[in-house]
Task: structure prediction
Amino acid sequence: MNQTDPAFYHPAPRTQQFCSQCGHRLSRETPPDDNRIRDLCTHCGAVHYQNPRNVVGIVPVLQDQILLCRRAIEPRYGKWTLPAGFMELGETTEQGAIRENHEESGARVQVRSLFTVVDVPSVNQVHFFYLADVLGPHLAPGPETLEAGFFKLDEIPWNDLAFRTVSTTIEHYLEDRPQGVFPTHHYAIDLRFPD
Result:
């Protein structure tokens, strides 16, 4: 299946069982003046919209090295990743990426620019990675990280990377680095199907 296939963009919806406003069981139907099936409370009329979750992270660079964190949590326990996680309410994507980096690596960074936007419709997510300069070698990994370390560009543990969004983002960085120009890359990945 390729990215132009309409099925690529229609994953199974997330559903909840009960209305968060009145507690009655929800039904799955199309509300008036809408064009999609939603979680609908026929008792109080509340429509419970389900929207994509944002994952925000950093591509932390120190000279000719990339900072990676080894995961201390599932999924992909023990695998290496860029510092990233779910965006919180009340923060911008950049603020969330900086927070996640601080929580997972403890590295001080200066954000340069938005680097990749990755649509992952099969799991209802959008991933945002910002390119950032690491301001020094000091690291202080948090509880979600077994260890953090700097990898030279020819030492990246490709077979032990946690997620395809991470490996593809690093690949874009390696492709752009020789020119020194880092445009924003926007693409989609379907995790249900191998590359």
